[in-house]
Design a protein that fits this description.
Elements: H1 5-18, H2 26-47, H3 55-74, H4 85-107, H5 124-152, H6 162-189, H7 193-206, H8 219-225, H9 229-241, H10 252-275
Membrane topology: Multi-pass membrane protein
Family: Belongs to the ABC-2 integral membrane protein family.
GO biological process, one term: lipopolysaccharide transport
Amino acid sequence: MAFHPYHLREHATMTADTLPSPSVSSPLKVQCRVIAALILREVHTLYGNTKLGYLWAVIQTAFGIGVFWAFRELMGAHAPHGTGMAVFLLCGFIPWYIFSDTVNRCMKAASANQALLTFPQVTELDLMLGRLVVVWGTQVLSAGIILSVAAACGQAVELRDPASLTATLFFAPLLGLGLGLIFASLARFWPTLDKLIPMCLRILFLASGVFFYVSELPGRLANILLLNPVAQLIEWQRYGFSASSAAPAYNIVYISAWCATSLSIGLLLERYARRRGL
């Protein structure tokens, strides 16, 4: 069934129409219904037109991991600290995909959904939150399937610190949302950012330790790369699966500060740009 903007209005206003009198929680319920409708629309748009459907997202993630896995096997490289190669690469790709896909999709949220923004119940932040949930859910589901297949194939899959995994899956989308809000707002004033940011993300991919341990590089180089919060998120998630007792190369306060600061600045810029009518 095709989605139409009218469905969003009907879905979002259902609560307000059925309640006998307004309540304090009514606006929140309406926004939750709006975001839920946007999530369904996003899933349908991304995966509803292909025969593979949602499985295509798993294939994309598995392909990226498979390419680097094959490359490392040809080079005779092995995953360090007692982790399996699938787990090692997955702990790099999943935080990266959650972060980078959230940034990219937040930047395009408004331009791809101009018709929906004509409804008063729908805001740009709603569009971004809907896309964030889809990106997060897609990558977590993909990771679960790939880990299950890896374990069935005899790969070592052992989670030593569940809190590390939970925390990184919490902070990665928040960081992506914060920077996505900042870049999307600034792109209204400087449209060139729409093309510049994806290029910068490609460079950042190589400097984030997706397929190597940043902490194992020479001290000075490692310290520079660890200024990148994404690199620290990846190190943190790998620490959760690692069998090593080596000191972790991440700083929880630093990562939290990046998330809180980017979200605060992003929300302020989004409101400023909205008031300017840009």
